[in-house]
Here is the input.
Amino acid sequence: MKNHRPSTLRVAAGLLLGATVVLAGCNTTDSSHTERRAAAGAVTGAILGGIIGHQSGDRDKGMLAGAALGAILGGVSGAEEDRRVAEIRSERRLAEETYAREQAELEARRQRLLAQGRSLDDPTLKAARERAEAAEAELVRLRQEEQDAMRRAQQMAEYRAREEAARAEIQRMRGGG
Here is the structure.
């Protein structure tokens, strides 16, 4: 059995070296997912490979092969996650840049209108202001309705309590008399 150990170690070293080469080839700016998943895959693979290898009589080879395969699969999965994260960051950065550019264009337009002596109440702005004022008026109306409804509910509760108290007193007087 000891004769197999040196070859097992060479196989293991080769597999781990291969896994390292594969993982090093993952070209990402933030390889944290790649590294974490490769490490988790290596540990999980080693455990499962050890169990399977133990059943077949060569636990060490099973552990090494499982660790290498787990590292490769975990690394590939992590690299994909890193790619998705980088893509999301890129999209967010693009959206922020677009928003900033649009805001700058709006401000430049506003400044041009002011420089030309034109009113800022162009039809688009006037319509926007009117919509805002209408929404605010609706909000005031709804708040007033809400206050009225709460006031009515409170009054109803008071009247019910008074009615119940009066009926209880009537009941007491009739029962006692």
The CA atoms of residues 4 and 58 lie 10 Å apart. The mean pLDDT is 81. Residues 59-115 form the longest helix (57 residues). The two ends are 107 Å apart (CA to CA).
